[in-house]
Amino acid sequence: MANGKFITLEGIDGVGKSSLVPCVNELLGTYGFKTLITREPGGTPVAEAVREILLLKWDEEFAPATELLLMFAARSQHVTEVIAPALNRGVWVICERFSDASYAYQSGGRNINAAFIDSLAELVHGDYWPDLTLYLDIDVELVRKRRLDSEDDRIESAGLEFFRKARERYRELANRTPRIKQIDASRPLSEVKDEVRRLVREFVKVSTSK
To answer: pTM for this one?
Structure first.
């Protein structure tokens, strides 16, 4: 049995990842692939508990290294219990966020040395990197306008400068990493979905022709 493929959706908070996951899942279903939808941080009971800690607003200041280590603690459980077993069974995994988010948020936004994240990624998931990443790019101010009526969690409350730096790091990653496909998410949702479908179809064509 061939291994499944690992597809992730990335972007700053409020960009529309959750709206596009069903689109990717439905398209993969038309090819007859078995799929699994999951998210980060989270995906298992332990990882979801860590997610609650990460997103809750605390009275004390959250140290950047604490945030990063908790992210990778949740990721370790997620990969071990869910992602790796599914891929090895031939299931195509669709995940909101993965380690690219740590480079954007904790390295770009929190100014943690990327080499530290490299070492954690190697320890936690080794060769289990996404095969395709759909990066939804959008201006930070536009996202904030879209989210005016939403209640922000701890990370969402980080401020515009944090998200500007996270977006900049995402764009840097997309420019140098072939698996990351940058999508203009400021357009109407129907247009974004059309591009997502096109990119996934192209990926499936290349993946299944090997």
So the answer is: 0.95
